[in-house]
Specification:
transmembrane, UPF0014_fam, mainly alpha, transmembrane helix
C-alpha cells in the first residue's frame, strides 16, 4: 500500500466525525485522539518489530510480551477500579494463559520458535484474554449488584465466600466468553477474520490462510476459557471485605 493510499483512508475517520457532529454525539475529540494514537502506536510497533525480527534475540521477545501483559492488565483493571489487587490477578491470569498457550504451540511444533510467530500470536492471545477479563469484571459488578440480597443471605446462613458467590461467578464467566463463542460460530459466514484476510490480500493461498485462521480461532477459544476460569478463581475473594462481607457497591 502506498503512502497516498494510506493517507486516503482518513476519509473514513472524517466521515465518522461528521456523523458524530450531525447527531451531536460529542465523540469528535475521542475519535481524533484515537486515530492519532492508533496510527502512532502501530507505526512505532512496526519499527520495533522490524528490529526484533532482525536481531532474533529471545530477551526482546520476553520484553515485548511482558509489556503486552502489563498494558492489557492495566486496561482490563479499569473495569474494577475500586477493587484492590485486581490488576495483579488479571496479570497472573493472562500470564498463565500466555504460558500455557505458547508451551503447547511450541511443544507440539505447531509454530516455529521465532519472533515472527511468537509475538503476533502472543498479541492475539493476550488481547483475547484482556477482553475476557474486562467483560468478566463488568458482568461481576452487575451480578453482585442484582444478587446482593441472595449472596448476603447465603453468607448469613453460613455459606463460604466461594459458595455464596459461585452462581454469580459462573454466570459472569459464561457471559465473558459469549463474544468468543459467537465469533467461532459465525466465522467464515458472517466475517472473514483479520489474519485470514491479511494473508489473502498479501497473496497467500486461501486454503493456507484458512488453516492459520483455524489455529487462531482455537487459540482464542482456549485463551478465553483459561483466562475467564482462572481470573474468577483467584479474584472472587476481592469482592468481599476482610471480615467476609460483600463490598459496598460491588
Amino acid at each position: 500500500m502506498s503512502n497516498l493510499a494510506l493517507i486516503s483512508t482518513l476519509v473514513f475517520v472524517v466521515v465518522t466525525m461528521l456523523v458524530s457532529v450531525w447527531q451531536k454525539l460529542g465523540l469528535e475529540k475521542d475519535i481524533a485522539i484515537g486515530t492519532i494514537r492508533s496510527a502512532v502506536q502501530l507505526l512505532l510497533v512496526g519499527y520495533v518489530l522490524q528490529f526484533v525480527f532482525h536481531t532474533d534475540n529471545p530477551v526482546f521477545i520476553v520484553l515485548i510480551v511482558g509489556v503486552m501483559i502489563a498494558v492489557a492488565s492495566w486496561n482490563a483493571g479499569q473495569r474494577a477500579k475500586g477493587i484492590a489487587g485486581i490488576r495483579l490477578r488479571i496479570a497472573v491470569a493472562i500470564t498463565a494463559t500466555e504460558a500455557i498457550t505458547m508451551t503447547l504451540l511450541l511443544g507440539f511444533g505447531i509454530i516455529q520458535p521465532t519472533p515472527q510467530y511468537i509475538i503476533p500470536i502472543s498479541g492475539i492471545t493476550i488481547g483475547s484474554a484482556m477482553i475476557v477479563s474486562g467483560l468478566l469484571l463488568n458482568q461481576m459488578k452487575r451480578e453482585l449488584e442484582s444478587s446482593r440480597g441472595e449472596i448476603e443471605a447465603l453468607l448469613a446462613l453460613g455459606a463460604t465466600l466461594r459458595q455464596a458467590i459461585q452462581q454469580s461467578l459462573k454466570r459472569s464467566i459464561k457471559s465473558s466468553m459469549i463474544p468468543t463463542i459467537d465469533g467461532m460460530k459465525t466465522v467464515g459466514l458472517v466475517q472473514l477474520p483479520g489474519m485470514m484476510t491479511g494473508m489473502i490480500v498479501a497473496g497467500a493461498n486461501p486454503v493456507e490462510a484458512v488453516r492459520y485462521q483455524i489455529l487462531i480461532m482455537f487459540v482464542l477459544s482456549s485463551s478465553a476459557a483459561i483466562t475467564g476460569m482462572l481470573l474468577g478463581l483467584i479474584s472472587y475473594k476481592l469482592w468481599f471485605t476482610r471480615d467476609g462481607r460483600l463490598r459496598p457497591g460491588g
